Amino acid sequence: MRITVTVDGVSYSDEVEPRTLLVHHLRDALGKTGTVVGCDTSNCGACTVHLDGHSVKSCSVLAVQANGCEVTTVEGLARDGQLHPVQQAFHDNHALQCGFCTPGMIMQALDLLADDPDPDDAAVRHGLEGNLCRCTGYQNIVKAVRDAARRMSPGAGPEAEQVDERSLVDRTPLHLGGGE
Amino acid sequence: MTVEVGKARRRKEDARLITGAARWTDNIRLAGMLHMALVRSPVAHARITSVDVTAAVRMPGVLAVFTGRDLAEEQGSLPCAWPITEDMLAPPAPAVAVDEVNFAGEVVAVVVARSAAEAHDALEAVDVDYDELPVVLDLEAAVAEGADLVHPDLGSNKSATWVYDSAEAGAGGDVEQAIAEAEVVVARTFRQQRLIPAFMEPRSVVVDPTPDAVTMWSSTQIPHILRWMLAATVGVPEHKLRVIAPDVGGGFGGKLQVTPEEVIALVVARRLGKPVKWTETRTESMLSAHHGRDQVQKVVVTAKRDGTVTGMRVELLADMGAYLRLVAPGVPILGAFMYNAIYKFPAYKFICHNVFTNKTPTDAYRGAGRPEATFAVERIMDELAAELGMDPMELRRKNWINHDEFPFDTVAGLTYDSGNYEAATARAVELFGYEALRREQNDRRANGDPVQLGIGISTYTEMCGLAPSRVLGALRYAAGGWEHAAIRMLPTGKVELITGTSPHGQGHETAWSQIVADRLGVPFEDVEVLHGDTQVAPRGMDTYGSRSLAVGGTAIVLAAEKVLAKARTVAAHLMECAPDDVDFSAGTFSVRGTSTTMSLGDVVVAAHVAHDLPEGVEPGLDSDAAFDPDNFSFPHGTHLCATEVDTRTGRVTIRKYVCVDDVGKVVNPLIVEGQVHGGLAQGIAQALFEEAVHDEGGTLTTATFADYLLPSAADLPHFVTDRTETPAESNPLGVKGVGEAGTIASTPAVVNAVVDAVRHMGVDDVQMPCTPMRVWKALQAVGGGA
Fold it and tell me: How far apart are alpha carbons A32 and A25 in whole angstroms?
């Protein structure tokens, strides 16, 4: 089947097998390897992306179901060398170790903040229940998401992932060399 | 000098990980690359009577299908590097089963196809006939008289028996005598359930065989050991094999292995002369990547009525699974030195039987032997306290090694270099609000509250910084425990630090940069850490056992000292003075008593261009160094857990968790705290959630994340963490290691809290994981529960 999907702002038209999962389409056909596969049962959430502005586990969506849709992956968040506030907050709060769950965790955190721009600890923990991390014990992830909420307020939401002047204001430079 | 060390630097690694730019093995795509998928046995013990690949070979896109018989000569036997006794029984361990399968999940055939999907499609077309054999699953049944045998040729299910006796070792008294003379004896049997390391990145391997050499990318913790062992196993000359561990998504010991899949990918890629990739599914990972724990521990402690402990005897059954993997036989032995923990037991005996079963092989999992030991001693100290009617904290205080007694020679034959259990405990008690929680507990008991409160204590220590090579040699481990570092001083003043450690989430790029920056007085940003590629970092013993900082970090210090020693000679020559008159501080050499200075950067250039060097001095300032520690390091701390147990449902909720760890000097507090958090999560998971379960036929019934309960954010509490800082004496950084501390300490703290909540109702143990069902049943068994 031929499908057209816009991924991180770029439109791609491809022939896909009907059985191809969105995550495999992203990784294997489009080279979008920022999104990863962690399990076969949609429990781990490592493959979470946004489909038309809402988070989905891309291992439980067929590529053909994304036909005509806009997909945002972790690769589409930083713009012009500026990290998204959620990415910056993950960095600043040491919310990742091995980093394998991080793309999905960040995408889910964005969705969570769109629903609840000022979540308390319990709301963050509940909102991230479908994303597993084996390294961090989640504490710094919770801290990062709440920190991101502060950075993004007011006006957190799906628009935070668009190139939006309001959210760009909060974007700080990408520290490629680490730093304080 | 310590501008950087101790600073909460944000990690260098993050930039690629938060933007989706990480280099996972599964991201690699090579021209002409083929994909491999594996047929795995659905049965736990059987003779293979036939493998028919005819249909599979004809499937679309399939290039080749191999059976064990096809690969038998090349694949060799998977290495076990730790023959703990001279007469240890070890079965051949083929990567692809040839005549028989010994666990469900063992590889029986290999499909290679143009795409991963086509390779997987063809798996079902491989027709394997099995003649099933009796299945051995239970550890105690496996060693009983007349038990069915996993490997009949070996004549026993016991692979080895290893004994330590403090009386024979001259490190303490005779435990049998202690038992005979004891005023109080407490005996318990604990079960360490089987766990699955469950790193988030599934294992993946890519092999590129060119006519000149073979390159392997693998999601491994141990590129150096892997290269050595693959060369020895498969016969690829070591100098023709390059192993690369790119970004690796967690390991926890689970990627401390030479896996069947790595061997198969290597053999098949060489056979076909094409690059081959294999990436596991999560279910394959759960079935076939090695498991952890799985021990039965019979523990006896003796004491005087006043609470003074007089002896400890431990007898273990340790499940090896179907084969002996890389370091599996030694895992329980690492625990042997830790059962006495922080206490002054005057007599100690440890007996361990390593046992075969028809289950997935076990091996190292975060803590490897030490969590098991710590669990047993911390649990039984609570039971002894209950027997004596003492507060469990008071019992610990009475028996632990006091601050002024270090260095302390233990009954297990180790020398603890340093520690301050009083300080860590005092801080933990304060943060926890111990007395107030005890009062609340008493109130709830008096009121018959359906939700009872329990307090669990774990005052742990562990041996880290694996390891002095001479000790490993004495324990019959095949490799050494040193670590290597090299420093390359580049002409523009930038620095490349090459390390033999192989991080997979630990943040070495950041922490090692901090050490180098301090030692050489260069900016943190100017240091690039290179690792995980045997061509770039040719020497190393890799990352496991909380060793990287204590051993690898020290190697960095030594390499930096060599750079400075040579730079001092060059600087002295250029500044026309004696080297002894040159001081070095913050990146600048100066002639003592004068205003003459020269920056390290200028010395680097001078050494590089070599226009004017002292007689006999070679150009360049590069250095390398290896460090082999004299002793282990011994982190310790006090963990306190308050649980609420609903006696109506058996549900356990962690109300408060406080830990105060002493990991010595800290290079990066942010990273240390993160390691503690993650360790706590895994230890708590053993206490409350995780268990690998097999059915009667030996099928793993917890082979997905839907069945094997990794805790989510909603399942874990907020941790209150703090540190005390007693520097290690065994290395110049004063560091001890932190990777395993949280996991080792937390499991007994939680289970002690669960038992403490319902002890007054008659419960004196709950088997892990303490699920609502188990807690409820324990209450029912004593006629309790609401």
Answer: 9
Examine the pLDDT at B270 and tell me if it is beyond 50.
Answer: yes
Phi, psi of B533 (to 5 degrees): -145, 120
The helix/strand/coil state of B355 is strand
* ipTM higher than threshold 0.85: yes
Which of A58, A97, A171 to mutate to probe the B interface, most B CBs <10 Å? Answer: A97
**Both B212 and B318 in a single domain?**
no
Q: Do A178 and B671 touch (CB under 8 A)?
A: no
Q: What is the DSSP letter of A26?
A: I
Range of the domain at B522: 482-627
Residue B1's pLDDT band, with cuts at 50, 70 and 90, is: low
B571, B604, B627 — which closes off a domain?
A: B627
**Best of A20, A21, A25, A39 to mutate (most B CBs within 10 Å, chain B):** A39
Asked if B716 lies within 8 A of A35 by C-beta distance, the reply is no
CA of B154: how far to CAs of A33, B87, B90, B150, in Å? Answer: 47, 11, 8, 9
Radius of gyration, CA atoms only, chain A: 16
Integer Cα distance of B429 and B372 in angstroms: 25
Find chain A residues with C-beta within 8 A of B706's C-beta: 41, 43
Same domain? For B112 and B83 the reply is: yes
Q: Tell me the nearest-neighbour CA distance from A154 into chain B, angstroms.
A: 23
Q: Does B401 score more than 60 pLDDT? A: yes
Q: Establish if B675 belongs to a structural domain.
A: yes
CATH number for B121: 3.90.1170.50
**Cα(A39)–Cα(A46) distance, integer angstroms:** 8
Shared-domain flag, residues B748 and B602:
no
Q: Could you say which of A35, A36, A41 has the minimum Cβ distance to residue B705?
A: A41
Q: What is the pLDDT of residues B223-269, one digit of tens each?
A: 999 999 999 999 899 999 999 999 999 999 999 999 999 999 999 99
Taking contacts as CB-CB distances below 8 angstroms, the residues of chain B near A132 are 200, 705, 710, 712
**pLDDT-based confidence at B739, cuts 50/70/90?**
very high
Let me know whether B642 and B555 are in one domain: no
Quote the CA–CA distance of B286 and B609 in Å, as a whole number: 56
Q: How far is A35 from chain B (nearest CA, A)?
A: 7
Domain end, chosen from B264, B288, B312, is at B288
Residue B181 lies in a domain: no
Q: In the structure encoding, which two tokens stand for residue A80, read together?
A: 């012009």
pLDDT of A172 higher than 90:
no
Compute the distance between CA of residue B553 and CA of residue B736 in angstroms, rounded to an integer: 11
Does the distance separating the beta carbons of A98 and B9 come in below 8 Å? no
Indicate yes or no: CB of B713 within 8 angstroms of CB of A142: yes
Measure B17 CA to nearest chain A CA, in Å: 5
pLDDT digits (tens, 9 = 90+) for A4-17: 999 999 999 999 99
Interface test with B, best of A94, A133, A146 (most B CBs within 10 A): A94
pLDDT over 90, % of chain B: 99
Residue B157 maps to a domain: no
Residue B413 within a domain? yes
- Is A178 close to B718, i.e. CB distance below 8 A? no
Name the residue among B544, B581, B585, B539 with its Cα closest to residue B564: B585
> Is B249 close to A98, i.e. CB distance below 8 A?
yes
ω into B769 cis (within 30 of 0): yes
Closest CB from B250, B704, B716 relative to A134: B250
